[in-house]
Write a structure and sequence with these properties.
five-stranded parallel beta sheet; nine-stranded antiparallel beta sheet; Rossmann fold; Luciferase, domain 3; alpha/beta; GMP Synthetase, Chain A, domain 3
Length: 594
């Protein structure tokens, strides 16, 4: 945090109005109106290109190791040129651009060209092209989107995927290894920028910026419509919450993929709408790849830093042992943020401790809750917490409805940052909203203080993932899974919770690298001991896991068992391993019992 600013100045202090209905439903909203904001992303690019033309907007290391930087003025010029070229190819509201490769300067500029000229685009997971064997989800996406052009950074890497969805009315654009009859990205930059001016003038808040595809874990991926209105309203909520970005342009180093709403909408537009700088991190939280992230963090002092819990698990080891890294990391940092999964309490405690040791004050460590359909910013926590997991309170401008459902409070939201629906799917769109127009998140929340909802909420599982034991007791799968992973002391990296219509809870365990390296007998003993210890600490049958077996195979991407973020689809895994689950309850195989 900047030492000249107190935490009270850097974050909101919301006050709420409440409505409680006879059926137990609670409506909760912040007092006051959402602060004024510009209606389109193009307005923000123009603002900073005029006000701070030489400021770096985005940067990435080049082949020589130096940062290749693009200023706001250069970004606008290239966006106009690329936009004119895309329009010349026949792209427009009904013929979007499909971006198949990952984060890059070219990806960022094509995205800017699209939002600047009103051409919708869809960044999709590279895993659909490079990991999937049958390209089934990529084909479904192309059928829904009907793109006018396909962009792949490397034509050779994406050759099979491009062939799987190529059509005569689709042009292929590539940066490297440009296929025959394709268009070289660099050639697009030679277009006359004036060719984009009329389209720029027609862009409004209702213009579609992009389509972000859901994981498709329960069927074909859905194309979530993202308009200028919802994204700009969402960023106004972010500025109201994280007020330090209003006096300190954000500096961000980020590896998370832009086909996800967290990085593609919240983080990237947090930077652009506030005139900051975004450094693309080519590292990631995986063995070997984390080294690049550490290298970058030795150079870049961020004002806001995002990671997933496994990333923080790896980073904390470095921060505690490398004093120079810790000094650079915390030099300008206003907050640490995690999302995507629950954070282990020991990681939470260690991060807070190293922050205090390095800076002499508390550095906020927090999380939030949102969805692709909420742009994603919706709930956020900015009060210092002793334990991880509080996702906070609803943002200004949103109305939050909490509906009793199966003994829990189901979350629903309404406001200007909520999607108008799914492209080409009026049935799914209608199913996503209730009779009052609230988007039904499918998540359950548990208040931190049942007598004071302003103290925030804890994620209480996905409504669709939860099930009942044969006693009729509901099981909050998300909470049970997080508690089990934490209690197993680093021996497992994840777990699938099972036991629907059974008397006892069970789990399918995914071993950590640490456990895989152990002698099998010693590993079995250690797992049994930890499972028994966890069961002893649980408070009831709906939270006490009594049986477990180890999953010998990694979850399958093509079977929908895992998203490319690495999160498990509990329902799919329970169904796909129904035989193994039945055998476990019959006492067959290497069953762990507590």
């Amino acid at each position: 945090m900047n030492l000249q600013h107190s935490m009270a100045e850097d974050f909101w202090n919301p006050v709420f109005d409440y409505e409680t209905r006879d059926d137990g439903t609670v409506i909760m909203r912040q007092q006051g109106d959402l602060p004024a904001h510009m209606p389109t992303l193009a307005d923000y690019l123009d603002k900073w290109a005029d006000a701070t033309p030489d400021q770096t907007w985005i940067a990435r290391r080049g082949a020589d190791g130096d940062w290749v930087r693009i200023s706001y003025a250069d970004a606008r010029d290239k966006a106009r040129r690329l936009g004119a070229a895309l329009l010349g190819l026949g792209l427009g509201p009904d013929r979007p651009l499909l971006i198949m490769s990952g984060n890059s300067l070219e990806h960022a500029l094509l995205g800017a060209a699209c939002f600047y000229t009103g051409v919708p685009y869809a960044p999709v997971s590279p895993a659909y092209s490079l990991v999937s064997k049958d390209h089934a989800k990529l084909k479904d996406i192309a059928t829904t989107l009907k793109p006018g052009a396909l962009f792949a950074e490397d034509g050779a890497d994406f050759e099979a995927a491009l062939a799987a969805i190529w059509a005569e009315d689709r042009r292929v654009i590539a940066l490297n290894n440009v296929p025959a009859d394709a268009i070289a990205y660099d050639d697009l930059l030679a277009s006359d920028p004036a060719g984009s001016d009329a389209a720029r003038a027609a862009v409004t808040g209702d213009t579609v910026v992009k389509y972000l595809f859901t994981s498709g874990s329960t069927g074909s991926p859905k194309a979530v419509i993202n308009t200028n209105r919802m994204i700009c309203a969402m960023q106004a909520m972010v500025r109201d919450c994280y007020r330090f970005v209003q006096h300190t342009p954000p500096v961000v180093l980020d590896w998370a993929p832009w086909n996800h709403t967290a990085a593609g909408n919240k983080v990237s537009y947090l930077v652009m709408t506030n005139g900051g700088t975004y450094y693309i991190d080519d590292g990631k939280p995986a063995p070997g790849a984390i080294d690049e992230t550490i290298r970058n963090l030795h150079e870049i002092s961020c004002t806001w830093y995002f990671n997933v819990p496994v990333g923080w698990d790896r980073l904390i080891e470095e921060l505690e042992t490398d004093e120079a890294l810790a000094r650079t990391f915390f030099a300008r940092l206003s907050m640490m943020f995690y999302a995507g999964a629950g954070m282990a309490q020991q990681t939470w405690d260690r991060l807070r401790a190293i922050g205090r040791k390095t800076t002499g004050h508390e550095v906020l460590l927090a999380t939030s809750l949102g969805a692709t359909e909420t742009a994603p910013f919706a709930l956020a926590c900015t009060e210092v917490q002793e334990k991880s997991g509080n996702v906070g309170v609803p943002a200004k401008g949103l109305s939050m409805k909490l509906v009793p459902n199966g003994g829990k409070l189901e979350l629903r939201l309404k406001g200007p940052s909520i999607t108008p629906g799914y492209l080409g799917d009026p049935v799914k769109t209608a199913e996503a909203f209730d009779e009052e127009g609230y988007y039904m998140m499918g998540d359950a929340l548990r208040p931190a203080d049942p007598d004071d909802f302003s103290k925030g909420f804890f994620f209480d599982g996905r409504v669709a993932e939860n099930f009942k034991l044969n006693t009729g007791t509901w099981v909050a799968v998300g909470a049970v899974r997080a508690a089990l992973v934490d209690a197993m002391g680093g021996l497992i990296r994840d777990a699938v919770i099972v036991g629907e219509d059974e008397a006892r809870l069970g789990a399918l365990l995914l071993l950590s690298d640490k456990a895989k390296a152990m002698d099998p007998a010693a590993r079995h003993a250690a797992l049994s001991a930890k499972l028994t210890e966890a069961a002893g600490a649980a408070t009831g049958s709906a939270s006490r896991v009594r049986l477990a077996v180890v999953l010998e195979e990694d979850p399958s991407f093509d079977k929908g068992e895992i998203t490319e973020k690495g999160s498990l689809n509990q329902r799919a895994l329970r169904g796909n391993y129904a035989g193994l689950v039945a055998a476990m309850y019959a006492g067959e195989g290497a069953v762990l019992e507590a």
